[in-house]
Amino acid sequence: MASLVLFTLSCQSGGTGPLETVRGFFQTATMPVRYFGLAVTAPIRGLGNIFSNLTADQATLSELQEEIDALRVRNSELEEQASSAERLQKLLDLRNSYDLQSVTGTIVSGASDSWSSTVTIDRGTSSGVTSGMPVMTSAGVIGQVVSSGPGSSTVMLLSDEGSSISALVQSSRAHGMLTGSANGEVKLDLVSSNQDVKVGDVVVTSGLGGVFPKGLPIGEIVSVTNNPGDLYLDIVVELYADTSFSEEVLVITSLTEEQRATAEDIAEADSQESSSSSDATGADGGTDESAE
């Protein structure tokens, strides 16, 4: 009732008079209290807004994180597909370059024991793959099929101690036998000590024997030792193809006449072997004369 009376008197006074003086004094006196109240409640209101925004932002961040995760998975898939396509293209380029009759395959597992160097590929007799066929990656020859089933085959690697294929030094045409060993070291044996062979020379398939096409890359010579009195050089070869980083392979199913060793190739290999035998005979004769 008192508030109503004061309101009526205020309206009648027209903003002047003692009542307005009292009200102005009251507002002035209470102003610090009102400012203090605003100062106290402002942070509380701000915190409420922050918590509200944080809740909204957290939901947004969760959605963004899900999108990022999905994009990351998709990006990984695309990178893998691109990498696989690039490797396959290299194999196709190699096949076309050497005019190879072949089928593509994938390495699915390594050796199942510790005393052999083999890999399993996902191609078998149903794909025309049989025992004895050469196998290579885009980097070079890796080995030869030693057994084959309907859907898979076992490939003996060049580093296996049971592996032995005919090869030659590309620059000097020195012929030898590329052999593996129990410790995985690969050597080019039976190269006469009078042959010009040096570190860095490239080793390729010779085509002798009619199994591997001639001229396929194998590796690079990393060590040559010519021991006094030895008929043959001690040559260590580092293979181009590393099956621990390989996936796709080419299985060479047949050879054309151009890919086989020619009569001249065979004659050259025989000539080198005859030269080694002559050196051995001469060395024996020299030793006999010295003994006398």
Keywords:
292 residues; alpha+beta; six-stranded antiparallel β-barrel; 42% helix
Describe the structure.
This protein has 292 residues and is α+β, with helices and mostly antiparallel strands. Helices cover 42% and strands 24% of the residues. The chain contains three helices and twelve strands. The protein has helices at 2-13, 18-98, 263-291, and strands at 101-109, 118-121, 134-136, 141-148, 153-157, 164-169, 175-179, 186-189, 202-205, 217-225, 234-239, 248-254. The chain has a six-stranded antiparallel beta barrel. Strands 6-7-8-11-10-9 form a six-stranded antiparallel β-barrel. It is elongated, with a radius of gyration of 43 Å. The N and C termini lie far apart (151 Å). Mean pLDDT is 81; it is low at 2-7, 35-41 and 286-292.
